[in-house]
Amino acid sequence: MTKALIPICWLVVLSSLLTACGEQNWNNPYAAEDAGKNILYTVFTERPKHLDPVQSYSSNEIQFTAQIYEPPLQYHYLKRPFELITATAAEMPIVTFYDETGQLLSADVSADKIAYSIYEISIKPGIYYQPHPAFARSSSGDFLYHRLNQKELASIFKLSDFPQTSTRELIAEDYVYQIKRLAHPKLHSPIYELMADYIAELRNYAEELKQVVQNHPSKDTFLDLKEYPLGGVQIVDKYTYRVKIKGQYPQFIYWLAMPFFAPIPWEADRFFSQSGLIQKNITLDWYPIGTGPYMLTENNPNLRMVLERNPNFRDEYYPTEGMPEDEEQGLLADAGKKLPFIDKIVFTRERENIPRWNKFLQGYYDASGIGSDSFDQAVQLVSQGEATVTDAMAEQGIRLETTVAVSTYYMGFNMLDPIVGGKGKGGSENARKLRQAISIAVDYEEFISIFANGRGIPAHSPISPGIAGYREGEEGINTIVYDWMRDQPRRKSIEVAKKLLAEAGYPNGIDQKTGAPLILYFDVTARSSEDRSKLDWMRKQFQKLNIQLVIRSTDYNRFQDKIRKGNAQIFEWGWNADYPDPENFLFLLYGPQSKVANSGENAANYSNSEYDFLFERMKNLENGIHRQQIIDRMVEILRYDAPWLWGYHPKDYGLYHSWYQNVKPNRLSNNNYKYFKIDAKQRVQKQSEWNDPVLWPIMLVFAVIVIGLFPAVTAFRRRERSIGVRSLSS
Fold this sequence. Notes:
Elements: H1 5-23, E1 39-44, H2 59-68, E2 73-75, E3 84-86, E4 94-98, E5 104-105, E6 116-122, H3 150-153, H4 172-181, H5 192-196, H6 202-215, E7 233-237, E8 240-246, H7 252-255, H8 266-272, H9 275-279, E9 294-300, E10 304-309, H10 324-328, E11 344-349, H11 353-361, E12 367-368, H12 375-378, E13 379-381, E14 387-389, H13 391-395, E15 399-404, E16 407-413, H14 429-441, H15 444-451, E17 456-458, E18 482-485, E19 488-491, H16 494-503, E20 519-524, H17 529-543, E21 548-553, H18 556-565, E22 570-576, H19 583-586, H20 595-598, H21 609-618, H22 625-641, E23 644-656, E24 660-661, E25 677-678, H23 680-690, H24 696-729
Parallel strand pairs: 1-11, 20-21, 20-22
Antiparallel strand pairs: 2-3, 4-5, 4-6, 6-8, 7-8, 9-10, 10-11, 12-23, 13-14, 15-23, 16-22, 16-23, 17-23, 18-19, 24-25
C-alpha cells in the first residue's frame, strides 16, 4: 500500500482533471446546469439607480425597464424611418382638437386656434401583470401583504421571500395612476416640468399633492393617488382613458411609447409604500412590476441582473413585414412567431474592456461593442471605406452591425458656475468668450480619430443627423468654431482661441484679477485605462490655452447627484433621442428644463430668454420651412453662447456571434430583447471548440514531477528495506 500511494494519488488527480474538462470548459464563468439553455448573456457597465419608470431616464436603466414595463405604444422593430405602432393599445390613439369654448375643431385647423387636444387611448383586454405579492389575496379577498407587521417582516429580505403571488388584468386606471405619479412630490420625475407644460392641470395637481404631504409628514403615510383626481386625465371605461393636452403638442404621441407612460397598478404603490419594506430596499425602484415580456428576478447591480420570461405575457408576434433588405438578411425568418424567443437574459457587470472583450471572443458573451484598443483586431475597411469584420472574426462567424446613432455626446458647462457660466442672458460676456475659446481648443476631430476609430461625426449643434432640423454642409457649420475651407469645415486656429481667452480676462491662462493660473474642474465617470487615456488627452487640449484641468472622477450615481445639485463645473454627458423630433434635442437647453431648478434634463442649467421664446414657438409646429427657420435661429444662439462643447454624433458598431439572431440595432426602440433569438446548441459547440484546454503542458509537468519523484521513491524503498532487515537481525 505504501509503495503505490504516491503514483496512485497523482493518477487520481489527473483523472479528475480530465473528467472535469470533459464535463465543462474550465474557463466557463456560468453554472454547468445552464449549458445549452435558451439564455442570452450580455453585459452592463454602470449600475442602474432607478427602475421606477416615473424616475428612470438613463440608458443604463432603460435596457431593463423597457423589457418589463409596457406603455401603450412602441416602435416597429424593422421599419425605417421609425414608425409608431400599438403595444398594449388596441389601436393608435384618437386625437381631437377643441377651441376655448369646447367646440370640436377639424383635424387640419391651424395650431393657434387649438385650445386643447384630447388623446383617447384604448387598451387591449386580457393583458395580465407578472406574478407579484402585491396582488396576493386571502380567501376572503383581503390583500395579504399590504399591512405587514414586524413579525411578518422578520422573514422577508427580498421580494422572492413572499410565499404567495398573484396577478390581475391591466386596466386603464393603471395608466392614469402612473400619469398622476409624475406629479408626486417625493418622486421628482425628470419629465415633470415638461409634462406640466402640456398635461392639463398637472401643475396644480402637483401643488395639491405637495400640500397633502406637508400636512401629513409621516413617512408611513401612504399618499393614495386614487383619492385625488387629476382633471387633465379621465377614465372613460375599464379599458379606455383620455389625456387632455394644452394647445397642440404633436410630440406627445412619442411619449406614449416611453416607460414614463407605462402602467403602475395601485396595489404595487400601496405594497411598496410600507416603511418596513423600504428599510429593506424592497421598493419599486428596486423591483419593477409590469406586463412586459420579461420580469426582473435577480437584482445585484454590483455583479449581475437577471431577466426571465414573464409567464403571463400577452400574445405578441414577430413582425411580418419590414424593409426591402430585411428578408435577404434573415430578419423575417421568424415572421408571425410568438414572442419572446429567449427565456432568460443574464446581464453581468463588467467595468473593464479587456475582460469583456476576451469573454466575447471565447463565446461567453453573445455580443460586444468595440473599444478603440480592439478595433483593428475586429474591423477592417474595404472598398469605399465600408467597414466589415476582419478575416479572423469572420472565421469565428462573428458579424458586424452598424447604424448611425440618433445620439450626441457633449461636454457641458454649468451655467450656474461663476467662472464658466455667470449671470445674465446666456451667461456673462467673459464666461461666454472662455467657453468659445475652449470650444475651439478641444479638437473633436482628433478625439474621434484616436478614441472612436473614426466612428463619429463632429457635432455643430445638439441635433443629430437623421432628425428634422439638422443641416449638412456649409449651411450647417458652427461658425464660432469652424471656417468653411475647400468644401469642408476646418477648426479655427488655436491663436483665435487664445485671443478669445485674453478677452475673457485670462491672457495665456492667467487670471488678470488675481494673477493666478486658471484652474477648471472636469467631472467624469472614468472606469478603465482607456478612460484615463481620454482624460490625459483632454488635459492636453486645455493645456493648449495654458488652462489647468483638474479631473474629478466618480461613479455614475454620484456623478448624477453632482449634476442634479449643480456641483459640477464642466462635465461630460450624452443624449440618446427618445423620439425622432428636433424638440427632443433642443429641449436639453430649454431654460425651464434646468436640472437644478426643476429637475429637468437641461444639465447645463442654460437659460436664454430668446431661445426659450423660440423653443415655445417651434415645439408645436409641423416640420417645414417655417419650423426650420426658427430652429436655425435657435442653433445660432446656442453656438454663440456655447453652453456645450458640441462633441460628436456617434456611429454604432456592434459585433454579434452567429448564434445571435434577429438583430437590427437602434437606440430609439429599447424593448428589443423580445425579438432576439439564440441558437444555444450552436453556442455550446463553439464554446467547446474555442475553449478546448491544451493538456500536453499539464501532462508534461506531471511527467516531470513523476520522474523527479522516482529517485526519492527509490531511496524511500531502500530505506524501508534497510529498516526491515535491521529489525529482523535484532
